[in-house]
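Support request, please re-run this one:
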Amino acid sequence: MGTKEVTYKHLTVGQEVKGVRGEGRYQGFTGYVDEINPAFVTVAMWRIDGRKEQYSTDYMFIVEMTNEEYRDRWNKKAGEVVKALQSRMNPNDIGGHSMYNVWISTNPWEMAEACEKRKLHLLGYCPDIPARHSASGNLLDIGFCVEAEDGNRFWCHARSSYLEVLARRYQRYQEWRKDRTCNIELELDVIPYQIEEERALREEAQKKAAEKEKDHE
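Re-run finished. Output below.
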């Protein structure tokens, strides 16, 4: 998840801090706010009961964004990710295969950030690739294709269900922003399971239809 910089006035005791910036320097760490006063903030370093360090309240404190702040930050780019993945590509246009798949996610906002930070331009998907199974046994039957900053194109394996998960999560969030009347975290979390259940029901219906047709022959 992303981070943001806040003043001491936006901190609370016990809050996790990822670092500080000020006086021309940056210091990254994991700490927990132990005390706040107008002169300085005391931070317990690395764990709640860790050694104490004091930082001037003139510093900016680096903390985690909330899920909502993060999605809002990357929402426009997430829309571009979903749009790009509507483009089915010819295998001649996707470049070579790569194992560098750290930018692939079923979370459209995380995928948007990953591509942006690695300067990768998402081009589309291609189903005409040699499928394989992941270590966990999932069938990876499509390729996601990107173009790097130097113009090099490559693709990485993904599951075809990722296309629908990404699109549905993005769309559901846009709908939620209009009324905000439900637990959006739960709604987004269950989408992959809903899609798998729908797929299983379709396969079962197809199986029954095929058996029925065979009985009539």
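Residues 184-215 form the longest helix (32 residues). The radius of gyration is 23 Å.
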